[in-house]
Amino acid sequence: MAAAVVLAGQMLLRAHSLLLCKGVASTPTCPLSSGCQEPLSALFDRAIHLSTSLHSLSSELLEKFEIKFSKGPKYFIPDINGCHTDAITIPGIHEEVTEIRYKDFIILASCFMRSWKEPMELFITGVKQLPNVQSDILSKAVAIKDQNHELLDVLEKIASQVNPEIKDNGMYVVWIEPEHDMPVSSVPRMRSFYNRIRCLRRDTNKLDRFFKYLKCNIIESAKC
């Protein structure tokens, strides 16, 4: 699998350190019709709730896909080319917290989420063509696509409060699937589907950690 980074405007994807903490999920506290601005802490709670849900869904989807379509213990093997989002610079976990730039973390999270928009749409289209596909596999894939979109919307609201200068620059990693023209049930396509979910599970875990880190370091009252 090849990947190429598309840049729409200049940005810096540099951040140092990533700390873990616990987040508490919540529902929206500011109805859209009210015209009020949802508190930043509530936005982070929503983001953590969604990112945690995305990771759980992707883990369940991977397990169900493997059970349904695997034809042996070594049928699904990790792609030697890794994940398409490997092109995104990943912040170090153990570096100095004082060098962190919250803007960079927000941009990084946005890039991850945008980079999964097309791969999930193509996954859903492809899975619909598979013989005897289980409805829960498709429903989980659709839920992931929808929650990813919702999380991106929440992130944009967080960005506007943390740093109004952060704008939607549309950065993402292009998805390229050489196996796209092969039969949907061919071994290369099936392995491509599997590795896509495997990479998604990895990336949703990173997103969950990103949002927990940001909340712990931006919200003074956060219990981390």
Word description of this protein:
With 224 residues, the protein is mainly alpha-helical. It has one domain (39-218): Up-down Bundle (Growth Hormone, Chain: A). Helices cover 51% and strands 4% of the residues. The chain contains five helices and two strands, in the order E-H-H-H-H-E-H. It has helices spanning 40-69, 102-115, 117-127, 135-162, 187-218; strands at 3-6, 172-175. Strands 1-2 form a two-stranded antiparallel sheet. Helix 1 (40-69) runs antiparallel to helix 5 (187-218), helix 2 packs antiparallel against helix 5 and helix 3 (117-127) runs antiparallel to helix 4. The longest helix has 32 residues, at 187-218. The radius of gyration is 18 Å and the shape is elongated. Mean pLDDT is 78; it is low at 1-27 and 93-99.
What is the N-to-C order of secondary-structure elements (H for helix, E for strand)? EHHHHEH
Number of helices: 5
Overall structural domain count: 1
Lateral strand order in the biggest sheet: 1-2
Strand content: under 5%
- Residue-averaged pLDDT, rounded? 78
Largest sheet: 2 strands, antiparallel
**Rounded Rg:** 18 Å
CATH level 1 class label: Mainly Alpha
In total, the number of strands is 2
CATH topology: Growth Hormone, Chain: A
Structural class category: mainly alpha
Put the structure in a nutshell.
By secondary structure, this protein is mostly helical. The protein has helices at 40-69, 102-115, 117-127, 135-162, 187-218, and strands at 3-6, 172-175.
What's the topology here?
Elements: E1 3-6, H1 40-69, H2 102-115, H3 117-127, H4 135-162, E2 172-175, H5 187-218
Antiparallel strand pairs: 1-2
Helix pairs in contact: 1-4, 1-5, 2-4, 2-5, 3-4
